[in-house]
Structure formats: structure tokens, C-alpha cells
């Protein structure tokens, strides 16, 4: 067992009280992290405010070099970070697991370093010139979840640092260790105070703290609403990437053999513990049983176990609460008549392992359709008419992502445009790219991440009017 430290004003800090982190594959104690105090929270915010004065005025090329140096440091410590991530989060090292996530951090850091927000000339007439400047918003509070701890932290902090903001990160208490280590590593590339991390319940005070100018939060919709309420008093800028109950629609002309692996991974990447994963699959009645058989064949052949074993492609659900929730939703569906194609029963022994589960003959009234399961279970829903499928897909308070699967791309684009979601994929689901904006509508969030539009979220505008004479 190892003690880990918070990082404030360029230095390691700890606290009298330590909190435990449990390995979800073994349920054994992995390490401890500090329950930061109110005084330490104040020091973190204060150090970020002091650092902002200089960092916001630093030449853009210095910040670009810092991001590339951070990427270099991730690469140099990739093995340590990936292993620690597997131990605390549960995802496997290989496949689309921890090594994949760590490499994603490198990709996003370098891509963000290549983005810029040049001054815009809005008018250049005989009377005047008008310019639009983008200025860093200030001190950013980054609140991250337990499903992709490292990558989502980088999604938050990279654009902030690129435009000249400073950051206080608060990682999820289920998975703080890899983030603590990553922030310590990043501080080798940054002036003291630019990037700080606090842990424990005191982090809940960040959204309402008067020294914070912007809050970026990734997590559930209920917690997102609470963050928004707390930030409202200070009229803080917000970026909220919240829950999703993404629907996928397979049109009747879909070539099943060609797309079925994409459907599977769209639903089960990270064991289904992804906001933008495929959570509901609508299949035309003419192909329904064939799709059920094809997905079952894939799912039953996937090895699940401790992520440190290179042979495993799936690990445990990250925590006991989420494990119980997934089991509850599957049990409720079974009791109401759903057909369990595979999985559906938790295995005995240590670890929060829930098998890959496919449910057929599911109805819209079942909780596993209405609620976001956020785990390794997928309901497969039969439909008769495409208009009906679109209406049922849109019948949700969520609107993060969606997908359409078809052999006719133009027809798929027409159907995709009717889905009420911030991102829609055709013949894939869940892929993201650093240059393509990503964000939700309805109760799935406010604002966007990635791309120039995501970079702009960390700035405020200043218009300048200059007379020509």
C-alpha cells in the first residue's frame, strides 16, 4: 500500500486524515490519499490566482512548449500511470484500456498545443477598426469522474493551460491516485501554482468558491445540477458534460456482419462505463434475431478478469454502488419479461465483476431503457417503422450522443439529423477526436469540449473599437 499526495503551489502536501482506495478487481486496499483541509483548499485557489497573473501574460509559444513537455512526461511515465490506472479503476491494461487511455492523454495534449485563438478583425473601414480578443477566463475548477480519470482530466486542463488559465483539479474519490501522480508529473513542466490538485470532500466547495472563475465538470446529471446551483451565485462560467442514454438505430438495410463489432464496442467500451457509450439499441424486426445472435456470439467470447492479466479485455465495474445498480436494472428487466441472451448473473468471489449482459424483448417502460445503466448491460429493442424508432430514441431527457447504422450513408444522414443529441455517429458509436467539438443537449450538459469551440470555452471575449482618425 502506498500513500499518495495532493499537489498545491508546486509542492506535495498531505493531511492528517487519509482516505482509502480499493482495487475493484480484488477489493483489497490499494493506497491512501489525503482528506484535504479547508486551509489547503484556500491555498490551492490562492496559488492558482497568483500564478494566473503571470501565466495569463506568458507568450503563447511558452504555453505550447509546456503542453508538449507534459506530453513527453506522460510518455516517459506511461507504464507507471497505466498500471496505477488499472489497479484503481479496474480497466484492463491492454485493448481499449489503460494503455489506450494514457496514449489518449498524449494525443490530446499535443493536439491542443496546436490550436490557437487569433485576434479577429470584425471591421476595417474608413471610420474604425473593430477587433475581437479572446482572454483567459481565470482560475478553473476541474471536477473529474471515475470512469476515465486521466483522459478526462487532460480534456479539462489542456485547453485551460493552452489559453492561459490556471487550474485546481478535484478527482473522483474512487480513482484519485493516478490523477495525483499525473499532476505531480505535469508540475515538472509548469510554474508553481498553474496546476494544483486537492482531494476529499472539501473539493465539493470549489464550484461556489469566490476565487474560482469557471467550473468544468464531467459526471452525472444530478451532480451537474448541483454544481450549476452552487456556481450560480458567482455567475461562474460552466462547461458540464453530463449523463447520456445514447440510442443507436440499425436501419433495415444494415449489413450486420460489417457493423456488428462496431456496435458491440460502441456499447461495451470501458465495460459500458462511458457517458457517450451506446446504451439502447433499436433494431428493425426483420433483423432483430440475427443481431441478437451476432452480438451474443461476440459477448460470450470476451475474456473478463483482473486487468493486470494481459489476456483480459474487460475488468470489473469500478465500484460496489455501480455494480449493485447495474444488477438491479438487469434483475428488474428480467422480472418484467426481458430475455437474457447472455450474462445477467454476477459471479461469485472477490471483485465487482458483472458479466457482459445482453437483454432482448425489452420494452421502453423498463428501467434499463429509461435510465442510464453505465455498465456492461445492453438492452436490444425491436421496432417496426423508422419514424417510430426515431421517436422512441428521442423520448429521453438525455441528449449526449446517438448513432445510425445503415448500408445507405445518405439515408443514414437523414435519420441521424433527426436525433436529439449533441453528437451523432454513422456506422460507429462513441469515437471522439481532439479537433471535433463534443457536448450534450437537453439534460446531458452545457457547453462543448474539444476543437476551437472547446478552447473558446476557457476564454471571455473583449471587443476593441479603434478609430481610424
From TrEMBL:
<dbReference type="InterPro" id="IPR015590">
    <property type="entry name" value="Aldehyde_DH_dom"/>
</dbReference>
<comment type="similarity">
    <text>Belongs to the aldehyde dehydrogenase family.</text>
</comment>
<dbReference type="InterPro" id="IPR029510">
    <property type="entry name" value="Ald_DH_CS_GLU"/>
</dbReference>
<dbReference type="InterPro" id="IPR016160">
    <property type="entry name" value="Ald_DH_CS_CYS"/>
</dbReference>
<feature type="domain" description="Aldehyde dehydrogenase">
    <location>
        <begin position="16"/>
        <end position="463"/>
    </location>
</feature>
<dbReference type="InterPro" id="IPR016162">
    <property type="entry name" value="Ald_DH_N"/>
</dbReference>
<feature type="active site">
    <location>
        <position position="241"/>
    </location>
</feature>
<dbReference type="InterPro" id="IPR016161">
    <property type="entry name" value="Ald_DH/histidinol_DH"/>
</dbReference>
<keyword id="KW-0560">Oxidoreductase</keyword>
<dbReference type="InterPro" id="IPR016163">
    <property type="entry name" value="Ald_DH_C"/>
</dbReference>
<dbReference type="InterPro" id="IPR044086">
    <property type="entry name" value="LUC3-like"/>
</dbReference>
<protein>
    <submittedName>
        <fullName>Aldehyde dehydrogenase family protein</fullName>
    </submittedName>
</protein>
<dbReference type="Pfam" id="PF00171">
    <property type="entry name" value="Aldedh"/>
</dbReference>
<dbReference type="GO" id="GO:0016620">
    <property type="term" value="F:oxidoreductase activity, acting on the aldehyde or oxo group of donors, NAD or NADP as acceptor"/>
</dbReference>
Amino acid at each position: 500500500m502506498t500513500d499518495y499526495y495532493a499537489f498545491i503551489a508546486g509542492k506535495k502536501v498531505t493531511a492528517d486524515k487519509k482516505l482509502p482506495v480499493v482495487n475493484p478487481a480484488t477489493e483489497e486496499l490499494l493506497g491512501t490519499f489525503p482528506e484535504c483541509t479547508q486551509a489547503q483548499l484556500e491555498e490551492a485557489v490562492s496559488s492558482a490566482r497568483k500564478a494566473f497573473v503571470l501565466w495569463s501574460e506568458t507568450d503563447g509559444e511558452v504555453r505550447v512548449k509546456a503542453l508538449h513537455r507534459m506530453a513527453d512526461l506522460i510518455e516517459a511515465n506511461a507504464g507507471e500511470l497505466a498500471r496505477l490506472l488499472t489497479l484503481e479503476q479496474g480497466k484492463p491494461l491492454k485493448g481499449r484500456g489503460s494503455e489506450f487511455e494514457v496514449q489518449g492523454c498524449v494525443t490530446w495534449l499535443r493536439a491542443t498545443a496546436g490550436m490557437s485563438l487569433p485576434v479577429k478583425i470584425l471591421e476595417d473601414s474608413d471610420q474604425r477598426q473593430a477587433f475581437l480578443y479572446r482572454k483567459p477566463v481565470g482560475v478553473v475548477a476541474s471536477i473529474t469522474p471515475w470512469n476515465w480519470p486521466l483522459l478526462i482530466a487532460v480534456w479539462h486542463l489542456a485547453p485551460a493551460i493552452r489559453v492561459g488559465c490556471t487550474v485546481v483539479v478535484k478527482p473522483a474519490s474512487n480513482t484519485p491516485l493516478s490523477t495525483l501522480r499525473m499532476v505531480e508529473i505535469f508540475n515538472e513542466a509548469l510554474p508553481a501554482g498553474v496546476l494544483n490538485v486537492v482531494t476529499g470532500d472539501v473539493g465539493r466547495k470549489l464550484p461556489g468558491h469566490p476565487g474560482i472563475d469557471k467550473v468544468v465538470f464531467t459526471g452525472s446529471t444530478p451532480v451537474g445540477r448541483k454544481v450549476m446551483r452552487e456556481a450560480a451565485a458567482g455567475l461562474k462560467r460552466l462547461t458540464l458534460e453530463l449523463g447520456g442514454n445514447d440510442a443507436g438505430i440499425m436501419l433495415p438495410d444494415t449489413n450486420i456482419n460489417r457493423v456488428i463489432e462496431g456496435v458491440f464496442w460502441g456499447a461495451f467500451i470501458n465495460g459500458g462505463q462511458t457517458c457517450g457509450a451506446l446504451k439502447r439499441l433499436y433494431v428493425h424486426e426483420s433483423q432483430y434475431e440475427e443481431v441478437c445472435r451476432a452480438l451474443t456470439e461476440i459477448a460470450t467470447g470476451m475474456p473478463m478478469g483482473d486487468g493486470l492479466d494481459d489476456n483480459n479485455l474487460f475488468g470489473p465495474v469500478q465500484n460496489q454502488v455501480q455494480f449493485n445498480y447495474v444488477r438491479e436494472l438487469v434483475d428488474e428487466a428480467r422480472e418484467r419479461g426481458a430475455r437474457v441472451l447472455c450474462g445477467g448473473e454476477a459471479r461469485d468471489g472477490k471483485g465487482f465483476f458483472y458479466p457482459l449482459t445482453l437483454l432482448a424483448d425489452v420494452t421502453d417502460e423498463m428501467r434499463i431503457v429509461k435510465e442510464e445503466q453505465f455498465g456492461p448491460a445492453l438492452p436490444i429493442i425491436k421496432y417496426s417503422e423508422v419514424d417510430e424508432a426515431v421517436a422512441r430514441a428521442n423520448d429521453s431527457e438525455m441528449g449526449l450522443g446517438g448513432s445510425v447504422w445503415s448500408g445507405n450513408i445518405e439515408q443514414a444522414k437523414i435519420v441521424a439529423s433527426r436525433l436529439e443529441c449533441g453528437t451523432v455517429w454513422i456506422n460507429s458509436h462513441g469515437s471522439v477526436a481532439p479537433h471535433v467539438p463534443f457536448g450534450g443537449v437537453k439534460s446531458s450538459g452545457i457547453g462543448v469540449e474539444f476543437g476551437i469551440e472547446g478552447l473558446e470555452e476557457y476564454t471571455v471575449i473583449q471587443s476593441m473599437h479603434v478609430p481610424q482618425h
